[in-house]
Amino acid sequence: FFFDFPHCDMSDNEHLVSPEDDEVPEPDLKPGRAWSCCLKITFGVSLVLNVSACVGFAFFFFWIRKIQKMDKPAHPQPKPDPVNSSCPFGNGPAPLALALTLRSTDTLGMCWPKIAHEARLAAPYVVLADDWWLNDTALSPVYAGANRSFQLQNLLPGVSYSLQVQAWPWRSKEPTSSHVFRFQTQERAFCGNAKDLVVYRDAQQLDMPSKVKSCMMKSGTHVDDSRDCIVKALGLSPGCANCWAQEFWCIMHHCAFKCITPT
């Protein structure tokens, strides 16, 4: 609508007032032309207002989406590490030992050499391991059988485990034990490492719940402040503490008001 509209005189529909002068033009103009002029002006103004409103709403919703969006960087889990997919021990006699055949974030695969034993024994080999989560260094049986390989599963990431194998040789009244081997699982992103898991394991002694709550209440929905507070209070890594801060941010923005609002 980039053109000049003549002024409209609503007092008399039969007259059109020119912007150059106030003289009444010749009465040969059509009576409805003044109304047509005003309708065009009204339509143009309405169109401009509607476009402005649409643009404003578009920016408003874009701003809301930017606030609600949580950037979650991709952290693919590491692939299992086939340290030695085939057991390095042959069928010949060899000192009793353990060899690592698979290592992932939650699994340790191992094998051991063949030891001559009585055929009647159903479980000539026994694998023992400690319990890191319970902070128990005593070795307990986790496998007993005739196979020469075993996968210890459902482990914690980034943790070092103590393992030992025992065998009952031919005509022996006592089992033969290998040295104690220490194998570590692969680490995972964020909290999947031994340093952070120690904090989780000792949560009660460190008063972890109340310290995390205190940091959240002081920092509100400021993710960076919450993360830094948790790092200082508990010693968690920034990546792990950021998970806690992001979780609290999500709860406050998407869940809290729905939970406290009666329905």
Automatic annotation (TrEMBL):
Keywords recorded for this protein, A-Z: Membrane, Transmembrane, Transmembrane helix
Parts of the chain that traverse the membrane: 41-64
UniProt domain Fibronectin type-III: residue ranges: 94-188
Keyword Lipoprotein in record: no
Protein name listed in UniProt: Fibronectin type-III domain-containing protein
